[in-house]
Amino acid sequence: PNYLIDLCLSSFSLKYPPVKFLSEKDRKRILITGGAGFVGSHLTDKLMMDGHEVTVVDNFFTGRKRNVEHWLGHENFELINHDVVEPLYIEVDQIYHLASPASPPNYMYNPIKTLKTNTIGTLNMLGLAKRVGARLLLASTSEVYGDPEVHPQNEEYWGHVNPIGPRACYDEGKRVAETMCYAYMKQEGVEVRVARIFNTFGSRMHMNDGRVVSNFILQALQGEPLTCVFNLQHLKNRNLNANALCPNFIMMSCLFPSDLVNGLVLLMNSNISSPVNLGNPEEHTILEFARLIKSLVVSRSQIQFLPEAQDDPQRRRPDIQKAKMMLGWEPVVPLEEGLNKTIQYFSRELEHQANNQYI
Ligand code: NAD
Ligand code: UDP
Ligand code: UDP
């Protein structure tokens, strides 16, 4: 969609990206909280181009107007500067509830606010869903599994979360948000959908987001060392040092936004009310990501090894059988293609920053 949007706006001088015509009966009024953020803005594009009426609610903590500016003024689009911790009274058919800081530096910046957003904010959106009879999809996270003891993680796993650690404001905040969804479903009959999203990266991520792939790409593009976190314990056990061939056992996977938003929309419109994992089961070590990004950028950056932060999950790999079987969903964007698009985006952002620094 990004490529299509750029093409339509620049090459064909269209005022807006193309929007499908939907009859009154099929057109929905959709609220996206956190819709000016990374995932939310891609979801906005998909739902707008599918012909729906989209209201984005965002307090611009980590999101930016720039991410959705190509829709400003469109008759199907509305942008509201609002904090979900405050009640919201509007009329909608579906709510995609994404509002929450998502990267560790952002959610740890103000842990109390992160807790309020995920608890009070979710309560408000469920209250809204109850009042207007809307269906609500919660953007939950693989972090509800904490530092998991089983691999891969399927939706039956209850998780392994430190309730008082530095990540707890986010992990426990999302766990309570899930609990609230099912309380409103059972007690009030609200229709809920819960997506447990695994690491996703791509265009429109904030330059200061701080998650691993955007960090590595920006570092590689700027010739800075790639900050590769390793597990000290694993190294001690093997009596190796970080400069030897590093057995970096921290494993993760990488999903791209076009795959994620397709999954979110399929889940919202399905009849599955229990949680569903959306992620890429292809697993790599952090070191492999660093090396791959360095080679795709053709960068001379060094790789710098840093000890992991407290409670950092050692492995996260989604079991996506449920999404495959029940939604017919699985990721289709190949890793290198997704990374190349993300690299292009961040090079343009660096150019944009350089061109605007004297304004
Ligand atoms: P992001 O930081 O780019 O987007 C979050 C958006 O929510 C931002 O636009 C921010 O301004 C907004 N927001 C934050 N607090 C708010 C509040 N109190 N009121 C209104 N708006 C508020 O992050 P993202 O990666 O796009 O994440 C979107 C959602 O997906 C989050 O709920 C996140 O927990 C979830 N998620 C993302 C990933 C991922 O890898 N990207 C993984 C798991 C879960
Ligand atoms: N709420 C909201 N918009 C609405 C309806 C409710 O923001 O359209 C908020 C409301 O302020 C309340 C929360 O959602 O704090 C939960 O609503 P609910 O009706 O479940 O609880 P009650 O108002 O009965 O405490
Ligand atoms: N990480 C890293 N270098 C960085 C940022 C993160 O090696 O510059 C590691 C981090 O320790 C974790 C993994 O990458 O093991 C994923 O972290 P990220 O912050 O991207 O997301 P999280 O899944 O922790 O929310």
UniProtKB/TrEMBL annotation:
- According to its UniProt record, where is this protein mainly located? Golgi
Q: Which UniProt keywords apply?
A: Decarboxylase, Glycoprotein, Golgi apparatus, Lyase, Membrane, NAD, Signal-anchor, Transmembrane, Transmembrane helix
Q: What's its top-level EC category?
A: lyase
Name the GO cellular-component terms. Golgi cisterna membrane
Coiled-coil stretches noted in the UniProt entry, renumbered to this chain: none
A biological process (GO) of this protein is:
UDP-D-xylose biosynthetic process
Subcellular location as annotated: Golgi apparatus, Golgi stack membrane
Q: What is its EC number?
A: 4.1.1.35
To which pathway does this protein belong? Nucleotide-sugar biosynthesis; UDP-alpha-D-xylose biosynthesis; UDP-alpha-D-xylose from UDP-alpha-D-glucuronate: step 1/1
InterPro entries, sorted: NAD(P)-bd_dom (IPR016040), NAD(P)-bd_dom_sf (IPR036291), UXS-like (IPR044516)
Membrane topology, record value: Single-pass type II membrane protein
Co-factor(s): NAD(+)
**In this record, what's one Pfam family?**
GDP_Man_Dehyd
Would I find Glycoprotein among this entry's keywords? yes
The record's GO molecular-function terms, alphabetically, read: NAD+ binding; UDP-glucuronate decarboxylase activity
Q: Which reaction does it catalyse?
A: UDP-alpha-D-glucuronate + H(+) = UDP-alpha-D-xylose + CO2
Annotated ranges, domain NAD(P)-binding: 31-342
Q: What is this protein called?
A: UDP-glucuronic acid decarboxylase 1
Its source organism is Gouania willdenowi (Blunt-snouted clingfish)
